[in-house]
Design goal:
Elements lengths: L1 H8 L3 H18 L1 H13 L4 H4 L1 H11 L1 H5 L11 E4 L1 H9 L4 E4 L6 H16 L2 E5 L5 H11 L4 E5 L2 H12 L3 E4 L10 E6 L2 E6 L1 H9 L2 E9 L6 E7 L11 H18 L22
Length: 287
């Protein structure tokens, strides 16, 4: 498997995206449960199926581009083209020295955002720390850890130690990144509306801002057509978070609204097949 990934990492992005688009449609047609969830989630969000349908191929592209992103040699450019939309906003936030919490939903290429931030800003403002959930299989975990932790990018597991690592990074004035629309384990979230439906939502994103005074920003990586590369979009958080860390449900609702706004910008690249409304699994990873 690792040999195959290394071969794919040398393949031009346009070919990887072509293969990925085919993979996305194959998965869609062979899995009735995936197909049903895709339709249900898009319908609940009020997105017409003709607008959501390109996301079927986009989901496959997300998988196919991982070897190129994870196994890219140090110093090699990210894809054939990388552009920024409003990177000055991120630079100004980092320059304040308060730390920056970068939030992105399962939209576009969320793997590329951390690498782009590191490539552009780490030399001046320090590394970005990203939250991740360790893989269950040991060999996959070792490979993912080594691939994701690149120059300028640090990884923090979804454990109490990982949360402390992110808080330290923010207090040092660095950036952290996480996906607040990822369903957290039981005890790590609250129920809050997401496109009008109750969804178990992490409390960590708001807590990081409230406990450290960091600047919250929205970020997502747009996948350009025909494998041309990526554009990383940065925008201000649309409304203030409650100042009190105890207002967890209200904070989660505000963050979910922000995620909805990003998704509506490009529903063609959202992961509509993600089981956003599932019941969380029980764990004691982070109290």
């Amino acid at each position: 498997m690792l040999t195959l990934f290394r071969l794919l990492a040398q393949t031009p992005l346009r070919i990887l995206h072509g293969l990925g688009a085919a993979l996305g449609w194959i998965t869609y047609w062979v899995s009735p449960s995936y197909r049903r969830r895709f339709h249900e989630n898009a319908t609940l969000a009020g997105i017409r199926l003709d607008r959501a349908r390109p996301a079927i191929g986009s989901a496959g592209k997300m998988v196919a581009e991982l070897p190129a992103l994870w196994l890219r040699p140090a110093g090699e450019p990210i894809g054939p083209h990388l552009a920024w939309d409003n990177d000055a906003l991120l630079r100004d936030a980092l320059a304040q020295g308060r730390g920056v919490v970068l939030l992105t939903p399962h939209l576009g290429c969320f793997e590329v955002t951390a690498q782009a931030v590191a490539q552009t800003f780490a030399a001046e403002f320090g590394p970005i720390t990203v939250l991740y959930r360790p893989a269950r299989k040991a060999w996959v975990r070792r490979w993912m850890d080594g691939s994701r932790e690149r120059e300028g990018v640090l990884t923090a597991p979804a454990t109490l130690a990982g949360v402390r690592q992110m808080i330290r990074a923010l207090r040092q004035g660095h950036a952290v990144g996480l996906l607040p629309d990822q369903v957290p384990p039981e005890g790590m979230g609250v129920w809050a509306p997401f496109f009008g439906q109750p969804a178990y939502t992490m409390t960590l994103a708001a807590r990081l801002v409230q406990q450290t005074g960091a600047v919250p920003l929205l970020i997502w990586g747009e996948r350009l057509p025909r494998g041309r590369g990526y554009t990383v979009h940065v925008s201000a958080f649309p409304e203030p978070l409650p100042a009190q860390a105890s207002a967890q449900a209200e904070s989660a609702t505000v963050i979910n609204r922000a995620m909805e706004g990003l998704i509506r910008q490009c529903p063609q690249q959202y992961l509509w097949g993600y089981n956003r409304y599932k019941t969380p699994r029980a764990t004691s990873a982070v109290p």
